[in-house]
Amino acid sequence: MEDRRVHLVALVDSPDHVCCRYRLAAFRSQLRAAGHHLELRSFPSDLWGRLWLGSDLRHADAVILQRRLLPVWQLRPLRRRVRRMLFDLDDAVFLRDSYSPKGLHDCRRLRRFAATVRVADAVVAGNSYLADSARQHGGTARVIPTCVNPAVYSLAKHTRCGAGVQLVWIGSSSTLKGLEAITPLLETLGAECPGVRLKLVCDRFLRLRSLPVEECPWSEAGEAHALAEADVGIAWVPDDLWSRGKCGLKVLQYMAAGLPVVANPVGVQAEMVRHGETGFLAETPQEWVEAVRCLAGDPDLRRRMGRAARARVEAEFSVDAGAALWLELLEHLGREERGKPSRALRAG
Length: 348
Hints:
The protein is of the alpha/beta class and about 350 residues long. The chain folds into 2 domains: about 5-145 and about 320-335, Glycogen Phosphorylase B (Rossmann fold), CATH 3.40.50.2000; about 150-315, Glycogen Phosphorylase B (Rossmann fold, 3-Layer(aba) Sandwich). It has helices spanning about 20-25, 30-35, 45-50, 70-80, 105-120, 130-135, 175-180, 185-190, 225-230, 240-245, 250-255, 270, 285-295, 300-315, 320-335, and strands spanning about 5-10, 35-40, 60-65, 85-90, 120-125, 140-145, 165-170, 195-200, 215, 230-235, 260-265, 280. The strands form 2 sheets. Strands 2-1-3-4-5-6 form a 6-stranded parallel sheet. Strand 11, helix 12 (about 270) and strand 12 (about 280) form a beta-alpha-beta unit. Helix 8 crosses helix 13 and helix 11 (about 250-255) crosses helix 14.
């Protein structure tokens, strides 16, 4: 990858998968403007395709393996067949998730993760915890955060005050488990903050006794509008290692829509939400109640915090900011390629 156009091929779960959309496809136009080409390919589902993975990718200057932890019988041939390999991740894929009945730790996942980061020319991690984890296992890693396009999001107007103020949570049916885990907290918010409502932008919903829930079926086309119509974004994750690997997409979406955020201070949430400036970090039920009460009763405060949140996204977590980091990485790999051989055979 010298100073010329770079052809990237990304192996992804699906081009429509949320990770591909936000971490790769979002940067296509900026990469194209710099003379590069990004091609998205789904992982083969058949045995023949898995056996010959990478055999038709010799034309690529670099292959991006996204999230997938391949067994050695797939990883080693893939690495030999491609010129350069990058590994992109936005979750602690070396662990099981917070809600697995088997617990977090999985020796097989960890072995595959270690093998993958050792043979990759670079690990592209969504946060510093993931980058540090890759380095601990012999990988060369840099952080490129998950990014959003602020231009897609209209700014919330913040005209409501008190009764009718709308909290909003966005996510998938799998991450809804986090809200289900804090049902008692949500019930407390409903009881202590009369008139406040909760909008769920999701493909599955929950019912609460004390806090009215508005069901808003998620769609890619409608999510930005649904957020901009709300007043306060909320986010909660368990305080564990899996959550430290999360990259805060929902928080970034709230901030892009000009919403103040109330979140528990775990992982990147503690970095993204600046307490008292772009929202509130709350741990105890009483801190959550105080934060919601304060924001529900003061639309001007919500507006100021929301504008500050939007400005931070534009500066640090926008597609333009992320694309600049990708272009810097490609330039670095080009210089590196001229100085040393690839790491093709270290998949032990």
